């Protein structure tokens, strides 16, 4: 006999308006007035990033900015803690795959380092 897995989270009834976002190019309607992490979890997203070394899947753990397991790219900015950012209509969110590239060195700093 197979059983249907129970959802990890059950949203409390509330009057918050839903917002439309994209996660890895998938359109989602999620509850608003909460963190990106809470909104994605409510939509059934269970994999937020992959570790740089093994590629193991990761998802939010602490929901308070301490563990960094919830890192995603939001509107083109990598390494955002999704539990610390309020979801907004139109956000484009991508899972973070492995290590991020370092940002380019500004020209003013290149001169200081003799490059
Ligand atoms: S879930 Fe721990 S830092 Fe976001």
Automatic annotation (TrEMBL):
Pfam families in the record: Fer2_4
Matches recorded under Gene3D superfamilies: 2Fe-2S iron-sulphur cluster binding domain, sarcosine oxidase, alpha subunit, N-terminal domain (3.10.20.440)
Region of interest (Disordered), ranges: 95-115
Annotated InterPro entries: 2Fe-2S-bd_N (IPR042204), 2Fe-2S_ferredoxin-like_sf (IPR036010)
Spans through the membrane: none
Keyword Oxidoreductase: yes
Sample GO molecular function, one term: iron-sulfur cluster binding
Domain of life: Bacteria
Key word Transcription present: no
Keywords: Oxidoreductase
Entry protein name: NAD(FAD)-dependent dehydrogenase
Species assigned in the record: Paraburkholderia piptadeniae
């Amino acid at each position: 006999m197979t059983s249907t897995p129970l959802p990890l989270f059950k949203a409390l009834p509330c009057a918050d308006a839903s917002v439309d976002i994209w996660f890895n190019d998938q359109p989602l309607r999620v509850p608003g007035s909460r963190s990106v992490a809470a909104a994605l979890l409510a939509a059934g997203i269970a994999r937020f990033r992959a570790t740089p070394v093994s590629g193991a899947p990761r998802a939010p753990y602490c929901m308070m900015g301490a563990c960094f397991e919830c890192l995603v790219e939001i509107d083109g900015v990598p390494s955002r803690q999704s539990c610390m950012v309020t979801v907004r209509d139109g956000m484009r969110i991508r899972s973070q795959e492995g290590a991020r590239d370092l940002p380019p060195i500004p020209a003013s700093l290149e001169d200081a380092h003799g490059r």
